[in-house]
Amino acid sequence: MAITPDLSTILANQVPGFAPTAQTGNNVGQNLRGRPMLVMIDGVSQSSPLRNAEVDLRSIDPSVLERIEVVKGATAIYGNGAAGGLVNYITMVPDTAARFAGKTQLNLNGSLVKMKNAEGGRINQMFYGKLGKFDYVVSGMYDQTGEYKDAKGDVVGPNYSLGETDSYNAFAKFGYMPAKNQRIQLTYNTYSSLQNSNFTLVNGNLATGQKATGVLGKPLGIPTGVDYNHNLNLSYKIDSTFLHSSLHADLYYETRKDVFYVSLGRFDGGDGQSLAKNDKRGARLFLETPILNLDFLKMNLAYGADFMKDKTAQPLVDGRVWVPTMDMTNIAPFAQADFNILNKLVFKTGLRYENVNIAVDDYRTLRTTGANNTTITPSFNVTGGNLKYSTYLFNAGLRYNQFDVFSPFVSFSQGFSVMDIGLALRDAKVNSIDKINTDAVKVNNYEAGFESKIAGLTFSASGYISTSKLGIEVVYDPATGLFNTARNPEKIYGFELAADYQLFDQLGLAASYSYTEGKRDIDKNGKFNDAADLYLNGRRISAPKVTASVTYSPIKVLDLTLNYTGINSRNRFEKNANGIYNGNEGAVKAYHLFSFAGIYQVKKNTKLTLGVDNIFNQDYFPARAQWFMQPGFYSKGRGTSVNFGISVSY
Q1: What does the sequence similarity comment in the record state about its family (predicted)?
Q2: What percentage of the chain has pLDDT greater than the value 90?
Q3: I need a surface site. Which of 128, 131, 158, 481 has the fewest CB within 10 A?
């Protein structure tokens, strides 16, 4: 956070296998190992696979987070939408016994390339404490960014840019402990991040390499971004109940609205601006029971059930229906057992049953248009109905911990996700939803690797393969200008390497390398290396990524960190007849970014931070801009920027 508070950037720079950031208000193309991920706050889903708008990483401000859990691959504990893994934002709890404590943080930030109108600021106020059996945390944050400038000092193209964005976050958590082993907790968080730009978009030129930028003028439509995201969660925990079991029960409600850009001439020959509405309510019961506790064998069983109602729609701002309301009911019981044999061999296995019902009322498609008001998809009535899915998901993993120098593991897990049904419904070409291929995706994940610890060195390596009989590849159709979903079988594979080395107390080094590749079986013959088969495009498969960091603490109160993120090249597709790549298929050219973070503890309760991003002012197109191949999103990355902060605790 000393460098940037943007969670999509933080995760991309810190987590191997996590696709690179586009430095925008959405996370299109950011996934885990080429598969969709489930984003949660305290276990409550922020994602909607029904109409995957890819905006879920920006759901909360990091100032109220205690930690972020990232799980790669599927797990029986969480289900629908977690085919590639999950990101769980864990909110903070009070860390003091005082009745009243607090922290005030102030930040100033902006461009160092061209500072005029690029200044921004951020304030965060937090109070927390404990009053007998009660504890509380309340926090408020407001952040305003200035103009984002690229390495040449020009305004970054304003489509979903984080420049000129107003963000706020309000957070409250109240806890009560009726007994030492019990806790009742109520959490509320609201987040908003809307771009209020003074610039209108000037499209880039894909053929000549001319970047997208902005000119002064009022943007079309209403501000884009997260209009609101409200989360309310009531939980009850007891550490020891019947059979020494622990119990965790949750009731939750989440509602959000995200606003997208104006599409010129796309709807009935005129303009239109869409927004995604998503409402979830549900309950979760999680228990853990010790079964055996012997010297040579320990066994624990975790089990429970998820229940969720999810309503998702994508209307236009003016009220016209583009994607009708989809009402999903998801019930999923699960169980997972872990065995610890002689404290050397760990075996885990789990089973989850997903039962999904999606109700869609009768609706009328919205006529979409291309150049000269030509009809791409006509308007006609579609008969709704119920889409039903049910499947069992299995996972198993084995790890051997006898030797620190070599701890190997193998695992198999299955993931499940309904496809982007909203995309299929809005582009329907048949008169009934039961004629549309909306079958869900079931993924098999295979992984093997090891971890080694030698003196101050920790090294890990893993390789993985994931396969699915149905795909969710979003493929660009140059004839219509639309993106459609291809359902061909898919195979994704890759590997990750990571190392941490503490040379001595004051100096630490870290590095990682992640590689992912994937293909789809066009002729559906079970092979992925035929001449007809194609690579998965950039929206799914990111270019290889290298990260490194050096952390130096010359004195106890000073921490200095130099970070490196390198995105390598990927070029898997041919140019079209116009001499450019089709959408999602653009070649990615390598670029290299360095950042710096300094933290100085002035006094026990006062801390100064200094962050500098893109230290060497690299002039580059982010990977997303390169593979997306859309003129309005062909923007350069941000040039050198600075973030100075002070925090005072009391």
Answers
A1: Belongs to the TonB-dependent receptor family.
A2: 87
A3: 131
Quickly count: other Cβ atoms within 10 Å of residue 384's Cβ. Answer: 17
First to last CA, the chain: 21
Judge whether 595 lies within some domain. yes
Query: Domain containing 16 — which CATH number?
Result: 2.40.170.20
What is the residue range of 630's domain? 7-644
Q: Give the Å distances, CA to CA, from 621 to 31, 104, 376, 387, 586.
A: 19, 36, 31, 41, 12
Dist CA 256 CA 225 (whole Å) = 11
pLDDT of 336 above 90:
yes
The answer to whether residue 172 sits within a structural domain is yes
Whole-angstrom Cα distance, residue 519 to residue 537? 9
Residues in the chain: 650
Determine the Cα–Cα distance for residues 429 and 498; give it in Å rounded to an integer: 47
Q: How many angstroms separate the CA atoms of 111 and 150, rounded? A: 9
Structure tokens, 146? 């200035």
Nearest one of 113, 95, 194 to 154, comparing CA atoms = 113
- pTM attached to this predicted model: 0.95
Burial class (CB in 10 A: 0-12, 13-18, 19+), 405: exposed
Asked if residues 535 and 518 have their Cβ atoms less than 8 Å apart, the reply is yes
How many domains are there within the chain? 1
Q: What is the pLDDT of residues 358-393, one digit of tens each?
A: 999 999 999 999 878 888 889 999 999 999 999 999
pLDDT of 478 above 80: no
Please list, residue by residue across 392-404, b when 16 or more beta carbons sit within 10 angstroms of its beta carbon and e when fewer do.
ebebbbbbbbeee
Residue 569 phi/psi, 5° resolution? -85, 155
Question: pLDDT digits over 155-195, tens only?
Answer: 999 999 999 999 999 999 999 999 999 999 999 999 999 99
Assigned domain for 649 exists: no
Reduce the secondary structure of 182-208 to three states and give it as a string.
EEEEEEEEEEEEEECCCEEEECCECCC
Buried b (16+ CB within 10 A) or exposed e, 169-179: bbbebebebee
CA distance 633 to 476: 15
**Confidence (pLDDT) at 356:** 95
State the amino acid at position 221 in one-letter form. G
Q: Is 148 helix (H, G, I), strand (E, B) or coil?
A: coil
Dihedral (Cα; 76, 78, 79, 80), 10-degree rounding: -170
pLDDT at 601: 97
Amino acid, single-letter form, for residue 60? I
Give a yes or no: residue 207 inside a domain. Answer: yes
